[in-house]
Amino acid sequence: MEIILLERIEKLGAIGDVVTVKDGYARNFLLPNKKALRSNNANKKVFEANRAKIEAENAARRADAEAAADGVNGTQIVLIRQSSNAGALYGSVAVRDILEALSAQGITNVTKSMIVLERPIKTLGVFDVKVALHPEVVTTIQVNVARSPEEADLQSQGVDVMADLFEKDESGFTEDYDPNAEPGEIAMDKAEDEAPAEDA
Q1: 89 with 121: CB under 8 angstroms?
Q2: Which of 36, 88, 94, 200 could potentially form a cystine with 3 if both were Cys, beta carbons 3.0 to 4.6 Å apart?
Q3: For residues 117 and 145, what is the distance between their CA atoms, to the nearest angstrom?
Q4: Is residue 65 a contact partner of residue 137, using CB atoms and an 8 Å limit?
Q5: Nearest to residue 75, comparing CAs of 124, 123, 115, 113?
Q6: Which CB contacts under 8 angstroms, 24+ apart, belong to 43-51?
Q7: CB-side exposure of 66: number of CA atoms within 13 Å?
Q8: pLDDT tens digit string along 115-171?
């Protein structure tokens, strides 16, 4: 389907561009959300007549978004989640969780559709997530997923908590080694070997 864009759409074009998209994408997303018009002679005339107004409205929205971006850019949110020993979350972090955490910090000008999460977050760590406040204004927030506030603090300082955890486990694990023992046999207690035999 041929459409006329009413706002800049990433990977498609800018305001006023006539582009061809799949029918479903146009019918289910672009047209109902007033991001585009069907490309026909009547709509082309309507668009050209209103082009200056549409571009002025877009510029005003972009200016508002740029002002809001200062308050959002670089924001770090901490999400405490349970995970396995390997760092895999029980469940995942979705757009709704990020939106709730932003609202808790007083950032209310971000909507669900503005958060660009390519795939749900399923592991511990610090992740950069894009927030598109406007098609032409994209900012980044940090999502810090940890098992406790202490781990979140360490992760925000650049410490890889999972690698650190495994190093501690390895260094704390020591076992007596008896070179003469058969496989599967437990090393003899040295104290027993060295104990003097009782006098008869």
Answers
A1: yes
A2: 36
A3: 14
A4: yes
A5: 115
A6: 43/4, 44/4, 47/4, 47/6, 47/16, 51/15, 51/16
A7: 7
A8: 998 888 999 989 999 998 888 888 999 999 988 888 888 888 877 776 665 555 444
Nearest to 54 by CA among 11, 17, 109, 12: 17
Q: Is residue 161 packed enough to be buried (19+ CB in 10 Å), middle (13-18) or exposed (0-12)?
A: middle
* pLDDT on residue 173: 47
What SS3 class is residue 34?
A: coil
Q: What is the largest CA-CA distance in the chain?
A: 117
Side-chain-side CA neighbours of residue 86 (13 Å): 3
